């Protein structure tokens, strides 16, 4: 379901891809059965391509990666957050526009 530039973040690769990243990482917490999650998917995938080399964009399937959902206190989805230097620097819940998500990345890159 993810675009070519969109990472699939799992319990196994989270430390390497997110915590040790030298660039901001946007995480989209989603599930296959979540209609709003599927609605924002194309925006997330587009941003992954547009920000390639400047930021990472990944999706976390909450059904397959419950540990990560717990770690980030994700109780309902979709939740999109940006992690920079191992810290959450912005977070939003529910469907948003691609421009809103881009603004989160731009703020983290500033």
- Characterize the overall form: globular
CATH class: Alpha Beta
CATH architecture: 3-Layer(aba) Sandwich
Q: Count structural domains.
A: 1
In what range is the share of β-strand residues?
15-25%
Mean pLDDT: 95
- CATH topology type: Glutaredoxin
> H/E order of the elements?
EHEHEHEEH
How do the helices and strands line up, and which of them pair or pack?
Elements: E1 7-8, H1 14-19, E2 25-30, H2 35-50, E3 56-61, H3 66-71, E4 79-84, E5 87-93, H4 98-109
Parallel strand pairs: 1-3, 2-3
Antiparallel strand pairs: 2-4, 4-5
Structure description:
The protein is globular and about 35 Å long. It has a single domain, classed as 3-Layer(aba) Sandwich (Glutaredoxin). The longest helix has 16 residues, at 35-50. The chain is α/β, with parallel strands linked by helices. It is built from four helices and five strands, in the order βαβαβαββα. A five-stranded mixed beta sheet has the order 1-3-2-4-5.
């Amino acid at each position: 379901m993810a675009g070519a530039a969109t990472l699939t973040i799992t319990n196994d690769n989270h430390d390497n891809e997110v915590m040790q990243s030298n660039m901001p990482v946007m995480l989209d917490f989603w599930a296959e059965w979540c209609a709003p999650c599927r609605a924002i998917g194309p925006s997330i995938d587009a941003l992954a391509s547009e920000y390639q080399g400047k930021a990472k964009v990944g999706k976390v399937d909450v059904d397959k990666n419950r540990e990560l959902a717990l770690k980030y206190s994700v109780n309902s989805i979709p939740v999109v957050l940006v992690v920079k230097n191992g810290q959450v620097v912005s977070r939003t819940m529910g469907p948003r526009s691609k421009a809103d998500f881009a603004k989160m990345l731009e703020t983290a890159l500033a």
